[in-house]
Amino acid sequence: MTPERLARMRAVLDKRQPDLTVLLERVHKPHNFSAILRSCDAVGVLEAHAIPPKHGLPSLEEDGLDLDDKTHRETSGSATKWVGVRVHPDLPSALAHLRSRGFQVLAAHLSERAMDYRQADYTRPTCILLGTEKWGVSPEAAEAADGHIRIPMLGMVQSLNVSVAAAVILFEAQRQRLEAGFYDRVRLSPEQYQATLEEWVARHARGKG
Ligand code: SAM
After folding, report:
1. Is 83 in the pocket of ligand 1 (CB under 6 A)?
2. 136 lines ligand 1 (CB under 6 A)
3. Nearest one of 111, 108, 112 to 131, comparing CA atoms
């Protein structure tokens, strides 16, 4: 590994935000999943969360989301190498995990009670919950969320593609965090930093980084 490559990894880790994440509820289309991870990488999400597609449907990998597959890598610009994905078996376990870590869960959901996404405070530990293309956020997840956020839609179509919605919201979070100086200091614990760096270096050594 060249010193430049190592320095680049450190520079990226210096900006990672361990308290900003997404929860993808049964988002199963590989290109959407990949595009969301790419935005996560760009704003500094350390780890994303996912609940695989429902009742007996294949796991994420079997459903076409092979994190190492070529199409997926090409779509994501290799973002999956740099953003970990923690898979939860179901909604209750995902929420329990996130809440034990102090995250507010904001559902990107076009409901009556949704606020404009720019009104939310993303400097708090925040998880953005996103739903499937067809069904959106499930009623259970919408009910359990701490709040709903919406991106105003002023055109003829009702909603955005999920990866576009994720990007719009994540970059508002980035804007708020830039303003608050969150990218000016290392936010990972020394243990998190070291563990992630070692993982990235090992990946590089295996020829995947
Ligand atoms: N028919 C679905 C529904 O009724 O919710 C539309 C789902 S939309 C294509 C996929 C996901 O993208 C949604 O579950 C939501 O998380 C997010 N999304 C899309 N447009 C959005 C918007 N304008 N505001 C907030 N979230 C949005």
Report:
1. no
2. yes
3. 108
Q: What is the distance between the alpha carbons of residues 168 and 149, in angstroms, rounded to a whole number?
A: 12
Of the chain, the end-to-end C-alpha distance in Å amounts to 10
Q: Which amino acid is at 4?
A: E
Which neighbouring-strand residues pair with 125?
none
What's the average model confidence in pLDDT over 68-90? 69
Span 106-131, average pLDDT = 98
What is the distance in A from the centroid of ligand 1 to the CA of 89? 22
CATH for the stretch 3-194: 3.40.1280.10
**Annotated domain spans of the chain:** 3-194
What value does the mean pLDDT of the chain take?
89
Q: What is the pLDDT of residues 14-24, one digit of tens each?
A: 999 999 999 99
Question: Sign (positive/negative) of CA torsion 111, 115, 116, 122?
Answer: negative
Cα separations (Å) of 125 from 60, 68, 165, 181?
26, 30, 19, 15
